[in-house]
Design goal:
The complex is a heterodimer.
Chain A lengths: L1 H6 L2 H24 L5 E5 L4 E5 L4 E7 L2 E8 L2 E7 L5 H5 L8 E4 L4 E6 L10
Antiparallel strand pairs in A: 1-2, 1-7, 3-4, 4-5, 6-7
Chain B lengths: L2 H29 L13 H11 L2 H19 L2 H22 L7 H24 L8 H25 L6 H5 L3
Helix pairs in contact in B: 1-2, 1-3, 2-3, 2-6, 3-4, 4-5, 5-6
Classes of the chains: A alpha+beta, B mainly alpha.
Amino acid sequence: MSRVRSYVKPLDGVVVAVVLLAALLIWLVPLLGAAQGQTVVVRTQAETLTYPLAEDRVIDIESGGYHLHLRIEAGTVRVTDTDCPNRLCQKVGTISRVGQVIVCVPAAVLVSIDGEADYDGTSY
Amino acid sequence: MTARATDTRALAVDALLLAAALLLSYLEFLLLPAILLPGIKLGLANVCIMFCFFRVGARHAAAVSLMRVFITALLFGNLPSFIFSLLGAVCAYAALVLLSIPGRHISRLGQSVGCAAAHATGQLTAAALVYGTAGVFAYLPVMLLVSVPLGTLTGMLLILCESKIPSTLPTIRNKGNV
């Protein structure tokens, strides 16, 4: 233990403190303002689709050679299944608040929540 | 030893460290699905970059880091992952330069944690640019939090490497004009 302590220098603590403080601040800021979202925005390589968050539905997407199945349910959205090997988008779980996102890098898909109800249910 | 011989030697060490960094990147690429949180990796390749920075020289480390990003992207990346990786590496390098200034008032642990945090910030900035939304910064607190233990771990590995890897390497910076 004393060997470990001999390695640690005062500025190490400062670096760690700054990193943790930054994490705390960035975590707190969106919580203050984030409201329940209105619209699900799905951006793929080819198109941008919008859906109302209030209506339950299943969305199938193909992008970058991968398939994603999204489910809008009870005001939240999540990726229920994907053939992308990472499955990170699935592990994110459900999102519902403005500014929250689910990203799938291999398929180049971004699912985000918008505040304004400017959806029309079509792609543009 | 002549300056040219030292240059050649530094080049060989750079190439060796680059190869090691690539292998470690590949190892992390294989381990990625096993890690539960999205976008989190150990940052083992950074051990090589930092080793190069302190043993061979700052400019050598920049070259090795950039080459690692390019080759990793060519071998197992796509365009978004290349941009993420590039901005992450640039930010981590900037942090390394900054954190090397305090000299003996900071240890490899603090430097490594700083690099890890800067890398995470750079990657998410790249994601924000690629996807055109600041929403991805919602991941930043988690990534910063995780960068403390993971940065400490890679810092400990670096301390181990620096104490175990023989003294033939550190003569490079002292004898040559590199």
